[in-house]
Amino acid sequence: MTSLKNQTVVVVGGTSGIGFAVALASLHAQASHVIVVSSTTDKVSDAVKRLTAIATEHRLNGTVTGSNLDVGSAEDVKKFFKKIGEIDHVVYTSGDALKLGFKDVDLGTLKETFDVRFWSAALVAQQAQIKAGGSITLTGGVASIKPPVDWPIIAGVSGAIDSLVRGLAVDLAPVRVNSVSPGAIVTESWDRMPSHFKDKLVADLSEKLLVKHVGQPAEIADAYVFLMKCGFITGETISVNGGHTLS
Ligand SMILES: NC(=O)c1ccc[n+]([C@@H]2O[C@H](COP(=O)([O-])OP(=O)(O)OC[C@H]3O[C@@H](n4cnc5c(N)ncnc54)[C@H](OP(=O)(O)O)[C@@H]3O)[C@@H](O)[C@H]2O)c1
């Protein structure tokens, strides 16, 4: 069995939701050092504290550190990767609040949908110094294949990630570049919805999805770990969506 033994994993967006679960799954896969990164100081220190506590409880050997970085600042991203030097893997799960709508919306206000999810992801892939055998894993979304009403721009950015990783896999070879395309995964990001709306969405999706439940972050984290561990996969997107596209 392969593992992440003696490897350093940087999770950009690792202080919450899917990224936090990837950081934890990396520790379980024996990563020696996991660095969680995001733009809010408190979230970084809280995530480091929570991950360290779990690692101690489960007697996992990896160390956890955190870094405060707003991926919107190209200069800061460049400085960060220069400072940390060579790493084995970078996982990118950063995402800001979704801006929905299309028909009645000034499209100029939707352009920033691509900032954190696409342009900063591309910059991170460009700047990370990945060791031989290492990988970069980005995050798209099921909306690229099955967008609900009001999601055309999110569908666009999600599909752009799937295409981006194919291009990056060619440009950055032999570094492997892949993406994970999540379906409905209940994370802290869902807390931005009014609670009655969130509860109804969870109930409706649980009824509709083939697996009869919405996803938990831990259920998708293993897909990222697989992409880090498997030395023979590049330029691919793994969909983890509970049968969303078939339901
Ligand atoms: N959850 C789902 O159902 C689902 C489905 C499809 C696709 N996705 C995609 O998967 C990704 C992760 O989603 P999630 O649900 O795990 O979201 P989440 O819980 O809100 O986590 C997002 C992470 O991104 C970080 N972040 C946001 N803006 C940043 C910035 N400017 N610089 C650095 N880090 C930043 C956040 O920390 P700070 O606030 O501290 O910066 C946080 O750690 C997103 O791109 C989302 O669109 C999610």
TrEMBL record:
In Swiss-Prot or TrEMBL terms, this protein is called Short-chain dehydrogenase/reductase SDR
Q: Which family does it belong to?
A: Belongs to the short-chain dehydrogenases/reductases (SDR) family.
The protein's GO terms of the molecular function aspect are:
oxidoreductase activity
Q: Does the keyword Transferase apply?
A: no
Recorded superkingdom: Eukaryota
Q: Does the keyword Oxidoreductase apply?
A: yes
Keywords of the record, alphabetical order, are: NADP, Oxidoreductase
Species per Swiss-Prot/TrEMBL record? Sistotremastrum niveocremeum HHB9708
Q: Pfam families from the entry?
A: SDR (PF23441)
